[in-house]
Design a protein that fits this description.
Rossmann fold, about 25% helix, two-stranded antiparallel ribbon, alpha/beta, about 325 residues, 12 strands, Class_I_gatase-like, ThuA-like
């Protein structure tokens, strides 16, 4: 009897050990610890910060993004007049940026919806229909409480975010959103002026194939705070700016490292952002130096944020 009990105990212990081993093999690697200075979330360039929870099935659903361009303050000319409520309201030639993003999707095999109606962002279930959400020059308090909650839950569920130009002039008093931007924010800028963009990483989907240096015209945002724990993808060479980088509120510029685009994993999701995109010509067929490189840059950023191409290399 004693031998039979001992054998039963050993068998049970061995079975438990095998089950625990199998569980450890299936469990994803532990994410790097969150830091309270980083809004209490996992962020940075380590892919262990990403939540691959199976909320997206491109093989079945394809790829789809939502362009959100609501403004509750100054409105950039590239957005055209404010759009009516609902999803996919009619666009006119004046809606240059929205139309350009729709065209990018058509030409590259992903669907694009667009809206300025905050109720379209009111629940995580709505947002999980999209592989990425694009904030296209939104301004000020562009989200209400339900939309803030839904965006946070969407990102925590592995969603993608692309912030373009004045996405940096949005939700100033929401620390979590500032973290989504790389723990960075818009401070000021000088006049719209020509400059030279420096491609600092050629490995990323948004910079692969870009020239090492390319001319462009923009407002060249100055930032406070400065982005941290991100992969900087492109900078502007301040020595090429005719009026320098000093901003209208006295910011002196960033010197040798003035970032314009970067990426990171954030709170379970992917975030790709760029301060570029001010000029209407950047979004239309009107000739402008560097517009082809800019569009290629944005396309790669969107495709990587939605998981179609490798992210933040």
């Amino acid at each position: 009897m004693h031998r039979r009990r001992l054998h039963a105990y050993l068998t049970a212990a061995l079975t438990l050990a095998l089950l625990l081993t199998a569980h450890d093999r299936l469990r994803p690697a532990a994410a790097p610890p969150a830091d309270s200075a980083d809004h209490g979330v996992c962020r940075g360039t380590d892919p262990r910060c990403y939540h691959d929870w199976g909320n997206f099935d491109p093989a079945t659903d394809g790829y789809r993004v939502l362009v959100y361009s609501r403004t509750a303050g100054p409105r950039h000319a590239h957005l055209g007049p404010a759009l009516p409520a609902g999803l996919n309201p009619p666009l006119t030639p004046a809606h240059a940026a929205q139309s350009a993003l729709v065209r990018l999707g058509t030409e590259n095999g992903f669907a694009v919806d667009w809206t300025e109606d905050v109720t379209q962002l009111s629940s995580p279930a709505r947002l999980f229909r999209y592989n990425a959400v694009i904030f296209m020059s939104t301004t000020r308090d562009a989200l209400d409480d339900p939309a803030q909650t839904a965006l946070r839950q969407y990102i925590r569920g592995g969603g993608g975010f692309a912030g373009i130009h004045n996405a940096f002039g949005t939700e100033y008093n929401w620390p979590w959103y500032e973290g989504l931007l790389g723990d960075a924010n818009y401070y000021d800028h000088g006049r719209n002026q020509p400059g030279t963009v420096v491609t600092t990483s050629r490995r990323d989907a948004s910079t692969a194939g870009l020239p090492a240096r390319w001319d462009f015209t923009d407002e060249w945002y100055n930032l406070v705070p400065f982005p941290s724990r991100v992969r900087i993808l492109a900078t502007v060479d301040e020595s090429t700016l005719p009026d320098g980088a000093t901003g209208g509120s006295g910011h002196p510029g960033h010197g040798r490292n003035h970032p314009v685009s970067w990426c990171q994993y954030y709170d379970g999701g992917r975030s790709w952002v760029t301060t570029l995109g001010h000029a209407v010509e950047a979004w239309t067929d009107a000739p402008m130096a560097g517009d082809t490189s800019f569009v290629q840059h944005v396309l790669g950023g969107i495709e990587s944020a939605m998981g179609r191409r490798p992210f933040c290399r």
